[in-house]
Amino acid sequence: MKNLLISVFLIFSFLLTGSLRADEKVYFSNIENSAFEAFAIPLPVRLDINGQFNHDIPFIAPENEAAFEGKFYPTFLIASGSNEKIYALSKTETLDSDNTLKMASDEDGYIYIKKSDLSVGFGLNGSMVAGATFSIGLAPYFGKGKIEERIITSKKKKYLKELEELAIPQSKEIFDSWKIGEKLSYYKKGGVQFSASAGYFLVGASIGFTAEGTWKVIMHKISDDKLVAHMRKMKLVSLKSGVSAVVLSTDARKYWKFDDDFSFIFDFRDEKAINTLKDMLKGRMKRVQELARDLDVESVTAMAHENSKTSGHNFRGSFSIPAFFSARFLIGEELEKSTTEYYKDNLRIDIYKGEIARYASTGGAVSRNYTRYNFFDGNVAEIKAIQGEAEKKVITWAHYHYLFQRDKFDKKTLDNEVIKLFRKIGYYEQIKLNAPVEGKFGSVRIQFDTVFSNPGAVRLLNEYKMSTRDDFVTKGSSLIRGYFANDSNAKLVCGRLQKIKMCEKIFIIQTRNYLKRAHKYFSKMKEAWRNQDHSAVAKNFSRFGKNLTKNLFTFEIFKELFGKNNIKMFLSVQGDEIARYQKEIML
């Protein structure tokens, strides 16, 4: 009976520990590209040929002699998931003097995002028991999924339950039933995974290799007559190693991803465009491209062709109590090279992007379903004409993104998140917000974005002469001491710890370490810029920026390096019960 309970517990823990996903593609799409989880039941649980638990395997033989036993057995998995998000379309341009958020109006409608996916896997595993359990297996898998982004008039459960699915627009009548702004994405994927693992009692270690291919279609209605459609093909290869113990698991991954994306505009006033879209949905891309290049056909327009290669690595961890609570986190870094041809503008743009991200989320019956996510990316673009002898241009920029989302927001949660954001960027008076009601006000998403523009980056790389590392670090310490000389500042930054000198010391120590690393990566970035190694510039730009977006003191130094005129900062707040609010932070 004891073994049975342990087995059931492990199986539920495994099934509820899925791949980490960002809330939406705009945040960090490559987080979704982690390899599919292993299909083998977590060790030491095993199935017999009939799919029943086998409890007769001796883990420790009499007189401490290992009992060797080897078997092959089938493994399988059927996993499905769904997720829904609702955001009010109500928008307010300004807030009252006390910065109180405003409630949404039902008359303005809502954006309803519904995601669903299904994966099926099967394979054959071989195992051997000799004191510990060893397993090796090969498992192919298949999956499909869909994302609908709808514009709806009500968020009541009855309305959502009766809402029909968004149909693929294979006729003018179906297309007319779509609202402007609605989107539909669907994908199919398949792959194979090899895994090997070893476990003793409730602890296991594993390694794995995955090769996966995905075919994806994205459609977006942009006007009464026109639809933008993307055909995207993706390939993923990944390696992982991990350790698990009942409800805890961690793994490290290295991956390579290859994407190929074609995008077109279809004018539904022409039957030829509708038939061409059907060809595209069937994968007949040659026919679509030929028609798009035909200057006599105005109803099908080729927008762009993009292909990209990405290499990255991440470290992930999870904790799960089946059905009640789960928590996950990811720390990752990747480098991407993409080439995009914009046919109408006769432009070819090669972009090198380095990105470092941190992601955490919770789920389950007792969770508030929070997501916390931030990234910094550094970019270098080479722009030239597809045809002709136009001079090549090189531009560089960076982007810092911070997001927090949670269900059942209230005043206390809002106040805490504003303070957390302030401790990262400063500007408390401009970002402080007040709750619209005393109690709960639904799901809320707080998002902050900073764009560091090309003039500032060029100034930094070509003109700025960085001081020595010691002087750079001393500058940060002086900034902190000056800030803490004001008691009101100390109270805001440290909260209850404002009277403890240790708070100031902690900031000085942390900031010193961040600035040391930033100085190192700036030197590497500048050397790569001189050598015109744009891939290395992007990689070190992301590492440089990551260390200068750690707290309000490093952020202040970052702004000084770039020049405030070369930086744009935006704060936006939205939810299912509050009106969307967005403002530019004035520097």
Account of the protein in words:
The protein is of the alpha+beta class. The protein has two domains: 319 residues, no CATH class; 97 residues, no CATH class. The protein is built from 14 helices and 16 strands. The chain has a 16-stranded mixed sheet with strand order 1-3-4-5-6-7-8-9-10-11-12-13-14-15-16-2. Strand 3 and strand 4 form a beta hairpin. Helix 5 packs antiparallel against helix 6 and helix 7 packs across helix 14. The chain is globular and about 70 Å long. The N terminus is likely disordered.
What's the topology here?
Layout: H1 2-15, H2 25-28, E1 69-88, E2 91-92, E3 110-130, E4 132-152, H3 157-162, H4 172-177, E5 183-200, E6 203-221, E7 226-245, E8 248-267, H5 271-281, H6 285-293, E9 300-321, E10 325-342, E11 347-363, E12 371-385, E13 393-406, H7 411-425, H8 428-431, E14 444-452, H9 454-463, H10 469-484, H11 487-494, H12 501-530, H13 534-547, H14 552-562, E15 567-575, E16 580-585
Parallel strand pairs: 2-16
Antiparallel strand pairs: 1-3, 3-4, 4-5, 5-6, 6-7, 7-8, 8-9, 9-10, 10-11, 11-12, 12-13, 13-14, 14-15, 15-16
Helix pairs in contact: 5-6, 7-14, 10-12, 12-13
Quick gist of this model?
The chain has helices spanning 2-15, 25-28, 157-162, 172-177, 271-281, 285-293, 411-425, 428-431, 454-463, 469-484, 487-494, 501-530, 534-547, 552-562, and strands spanning 69-88, 91-92, 110-130, 132-152, 183-200, 203-221, 226-245, 248-267, 300-321, 325-342, 347-363, 371-385, 393-406, 444-452, 567-575, 580-585.
